[in-house]
Amino acid sequence: xxxxxDRRSLRTREILREALFDMASNKPxxxxxxxxxxxxxxxxxxxxYVQYQDMNDFLEQLKNEILEEYHxxxxxxxxxxxxxxxxVDPPVGFVRPFEFVQLHERFFRIFMGSVDxxxxxxxxxxxxxxxxxxxxxxxxxxxxxxxxPVKQLYLFSYLASAYIGSLQLWIQRDFDLxxxxxxxxxxxxxxxxxAGLEFKD
Length: 201
What we know:
Layout: H1 2-24, H2 34-41, H3 45-51, H4 55-73, H5 92-103, H6 105-111, H7 120-139, H8 150-172, H9 179-192
């Protein structure tokens, strides 16, 4: 019975998500009401309130689920044994974050593809900075977090912002590069620096 209810709950969440994505392509998130959402999903409001307190709770749970999945994927971000040269054939761990974004493109188009009224880009940036820090500490095991040089922290923030900015442009351009190409591009930027790069096509 519990398994059946769990499947029903997951299906309800999926239906509500798809209804939200449909509506948000034409209407700001903050203007969508529970009634409009459930009408679009062909569910009654009671079903919605079994799982969520209100629209804000629904949106927060949706964002948190995506963030948790994304965080589990980026654990290898920033770590590579192949030295300081840019990738020619990027490790799978560096490609998967871009594959994840593309897989969930409807979500990311709404929450990161244009004006970020929900603050989701900032929420995405923080775990990336934390991952850079964790990777740094793995390479410098004698250091504690408080001992990381201040300028290194600025670098982590810069790289995380560049990463998020690249993701947003990629989304806005309808994923015109493959996840593999995006991983190589970010490798070039982060390892060579923007001043040393000039692309012909």
